Amino acid sequence: MKVAVLGVLLLVQATRGFPDGAPVGACDSFMPRHGTTAALPNPTSPYAVVQSKAHYAPGDIVTVTITTSGPSFKGFLVQGFNPQTREVIGEFLGGPGVQLVPQCSSITHENSRNKKAATLNWKAPHGTSGPVMFRATVVKSYSEFYANLLSQSAGY
Hints:
The chain is 12% helix and 38% strand. By secondary structure, it is mainly beta. The chain has one domain: Reeler domain (Immunoglobulin-like, Sandwich), CATH 2.60.40.
């Protein structure tokens, strides 16, 4: 009987995904680790990642917004990087509805409620300046997600 209850609990967790944010293990691949599900093709994504600035100065705050022209989304994982070197740079600031993943300088969702947008604040590193881009994985549902969506600059 105990084995059956444990099996049901594990199955419930597997079908829920990660309602309180992406696990640290997702940092390497930017995949949500929802079993063996493959990412949907990025050109079909209804989600966009838009940043307020393409270049930063030391300590600048860049606003990063995930938006949708279609269905809401349940989760995300976002990271800033230098597009020339691919080095992860900067750090995100916490806020309502998000949680930090400091092990990979990323930010993720705090709950799996449907979202039409997420506005995030990224802080540029001190002592350096240059270009910045953001990559995101956006989860529509447990079995539907888009991985490594790249940001577009709002042109400020």
